[in-house]
Design brief:
heterodimer, A: 295 residues, mainly alpha, two-stranded antiparallel sheet, 10 helices, 6 strands, globular, B: 247 residues, two-stranded parallel ribbon, 6 helices, disordered N terminus
């Protein structure tokens, strides 16, 4: 039999076949569904590898991107898990009621994002990074080497770190999502780009909610908005680098503050910076999260 | 009568609030918060609309199709919040005024940016009419805001993949969508009081109980295709917008 004829035949039926073929078992499972087209008994067991090599389709850039996102999700997930289980003199660090509801929801999402990324990396034929490789045997330093010494002894400090982490997460996904463009791998019947967009907006919801929690506490940061005003608006200078470029008012070749806003007055600087969140590349993000133990 | 031309993509000057049409647009059935969600009406078939009496305009394909689609959305959002601030609801607080003013100014920034980006490729301006929203009532207004913002996030997430020419355009859509998600979360949190129970609930996010349900998309936000979004918006516009090339 001519292997390339077989590939052509499969491609006619399933244009996504070349992207879906990964482990040998999955490859053979896909092949059996085409019934009489293939003499299964004649297939070499390493057929999966052959198909992969024929199309050179292992998207390393996406695997690397998803592993980077996974590292960030491990960090965030561990942060919220620890926060939700921390007590100070037998009282929970996180106040009962809305704060606990918010943190639990966020924590559940981060766990789900970890699971999603792990599964996606496998679907792409890659190897997911293990949390045990991060921090010290998988345990992070959420004080970031002493920058946030009261992160688990003071709820407002915890909220500040959450604020920084979530906004950084938004910027990270915004920078990574375009890497998925063009890939046809489907998870839950949607492309990786659609999936990346689906995590990105959830992180933005987290960020906005953390900010509202901070704004609504007299010991938090009253006046803090759900969106980023200017650059570092967290009230903690240790996060300055996380907000570099957020005060941008030039979008492409268009200066937002030169455009007409409400009542025939130019759009104000604050609105211009708030209305657009800015991306960060992986190279830019890593030094921001390395102090917590991300490697 | 609306003075729309159907020569797409002729640009029309933005209508000021004083000349806003009073036709029935953005008709929200009932006064309940749930009924005011635009998602609730997204299932309505476009055949329910008397489209034979409306001019049909397609947003087009490729990057300009996506950008024009976004431009329509931002025009509706900007007009809504402009009305909210100009006729604020009873007992609006200072904090709420600040938030809703920001939303207005963000949507105006988005609208003007997209208009500038599209240049001569911008579709003719649309003029929605919100005469059936009770702007005096906080629940009514915030529920409408929630519906609009939720739809916006779903719309941008569903339209972004149709960018196929200039990666910068995907970048712009990405910069905007996270801000819309922040808007949606903030409005939902305002509606939910201090419970913080709905900023990312199961109406938005896959997975009822994360990790225990075998849904590969657990924890990911849902989206709507451009056609689904326009299906929700068209009932409230004087034109029938289509997105036949954004598929």
């Amino acid at each position: 039999m001519n292997i390339f004829t077989i590939i052509d035949e499969i491609q006619k039926i399933d244009p996504d076949f070349n992207d879906r073929v990964n482990p040998r078992r999955a490859a053979i499972k896909n092949i059996t569904s085409f019934g009489s087209k293939i003499a299964l008994a004649a297939m070499p067991f390493a057929i999966g590898t052959i198909f992969q090599r024929a199309y050179g389709a292992v998207p390393q850039a996406i695997i690397d991107s998803f592993n980077f996102a996974l590292k960030l999700e491990f960090l965030e997930s561990a942060f919220y898990t620890k926060g939700l289980t921390t007590t100070i003199s037998s009282s929970p660090l996180i106040p009962a009621g809305g704060d606990t509801t918010a943190m639990t929801t966020i924590s559940n999402h981060e766990k789900a994002h970890v699971a999603f990324l792990q599964a996606a990396i496998v679907a792409l034929g890659g190897t997911a990074v293990l949390q045990s490789t991060q921090g010290t045997a998988g345990v992070y330093d959420f004080t970031a080497g002493g920058k946030f010494p009261t992160v688990f002894t003071n709820y407002d400090a915890f909220l500040t770190v959450a604020n920084g982490l979530e906004d950084t997460g938004v910027r990270t996904y915004k920078g990574q999502a375009p890497i998925c463009v063009g890939n046809q791998t489907l998870i839950g019947n949607q492309t990786l780009l659609a999936c990346a967009l689906g995590i990105h907006s959830v992180e933005a919801r987290h960020a906005a909610t953390i900010r509202q929690l901070r704004s609504n506490r007299t010991t938090g940061l009253p006046g803090l908005k759900g969106w980023v005003t200017g650059a570092n608006d967290t009230g903690n200078t240790n996060f300055a680098a996380n907000y570099a470029g957020e005060d941008n008012v030039l979008q492409g070749s268009i200066t937002i503050t030169n455009l007409m806003g409400y009542n025939n007055v130019n759009i104000a600087v604050n609105a211009a910076t708030e209305a657009f969140d800015e991306p960060l590349t992986a190279v830019q993000v890593l030094p921001l999260i390395a102090p917590f133990g991300v490697k | 009568m609306q003075n729309f031309t159907n020569n797409y993509p002729v640009e029309e000057p933005e209508k000021t609030q004083s000349t806003m049409q009073r036709r029935s647009f953005l008709r929200y059935a009932g006064a309940g918060a749930a009924a005011l969600s635009l998602f609730a009406v997204a299932c309505k078939k476009s055949s329910d609309v008397t489209s034979t009496t409306k001019t049909s305009i397609d947003v087009g394909g490729g990057d300009n199709g996506v950008l024009n689609f976004a431009y329509v959305l931002t025009q509706i959002e900007a007009a809504f919040y402009t009305q909210v601030i100009s006729t604020p609801y009873t007992s609006i607080t200072t904090a709420e005024t600040t938030i809703l003013t920001d939303l207005r100014d963000h949507e105006i920034a988005h609208r003007e940016f997209l208009k500038a980006l599209l240049g001569t490729n911008a579709m003719a301006a649309i003029t929605p009419d919100f005469s059936n929203i009770n702007f005096n009532d906080r629940t009514n207004v915030l529920a409408a805001a929630k519906g609009i913002e939720d739809l916006g996030v779903a719309a941008y997430n569903g339209a972004a993949p149709f960018i196929n020419t200039d990666p910068n355009n995907l970048g712009f859509i990405l910069k905007i969508v996270s801000v819309e998600a922040r808007h949606s979360a903030v409005i939902r949190n305002l509606l939910a009081g201090t419970t913080y129970a709905t900023f990312a609930d199961s109406t938005l996010i896959h997975g009822a109980s994360y990790g225990s349900v075998a849904d590969p998309l657990n924890g990911l936000e849902t989206y709507r295709t451009p056609a689904q979004v326009l299906n929700a918006l068209n009932q409230y516009l004087t034109v029938n917008l289509t997105a036949t090339l954004l598929v």
